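re the bet — no i am not wrong, look at it urself. input seq straight from the record:
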Amino acid sequence: MAEAQPNKRVGGHAYGRRHMQLSNTAEEGELCIYSGHSLGRFSSHSMRYDSHQACVRCVASAREGMLSFDIDRLLKKYRNKALKFWSQVDIGQPDECWMWNGVINPRTQQPQFAWRRPGISTSTQHHPQRVAMWFTWGDLGFTGVKTTCGEKYCCNPFHLIPQHVGVFVDQDSYIDSFELACQLHTLRQQVAEYVIEEAIKEEQKKDDTAEIEARAALLLDPNTQYVDRFEAVMTDILEGRHISQTEPFHPGLFRAPTDNEENDENPTEEF
């Protein structure tokens, strides 16, 4: 089985340190986005190749051709980021191009996805093909990525090849893989649920804004009765959104209401 090769057509771009070979030395670096790749149970670091800042364990998996769409393999704090990314990709069939529907840089006409990764990159904008590689092939850092289809807006991981890693793939085996088909089906469901939840949050935010504006108009109106003012203020206090309940160092951020009921799991000891 031969090593996968990128498309030779003009437009099949490679990104990152595509002309550099992966080094043979590794160093302690930023924690990998995948669970179980830390140096130890309580460590916040992972071993990374010093040339590309690629996770050693992810490189080993990529060299074995291990491709995955399982969101649950990621650390919890990165799962929403993955769902946000895939919600901007037109996920189709394994043999089709998955076009990017997110932000396009108006100056360079290059697609981009916002993600701040301290210790990995100083840039806050990344090409979606690289992000798709991170979420499927592994946290390969600056490793270049090139497409087999030659389409710069394609984010289909089946069409992406991490450069200078030695990825050996069999496209037919991927397409016929029952495990990957199940993972892809689950991913589509998770993305659909994420889109619905975000739409509900956005509508709730609009409703909250309208309610705040109406209450502000009520309190600032000199003709408002004292009873109505008192009722509005008491409602804000009970719901934890009064001005006196904001965080002192974060204006506009409300503290969650305190539950004074006894906690059965951690009952308060007598003082």
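see?? Helices lie at 56-63, 76-86, 128-136, 171-175, 178-220, 226-238. told u. also The first strand starts at residue 26 and ends at 30. so pay up
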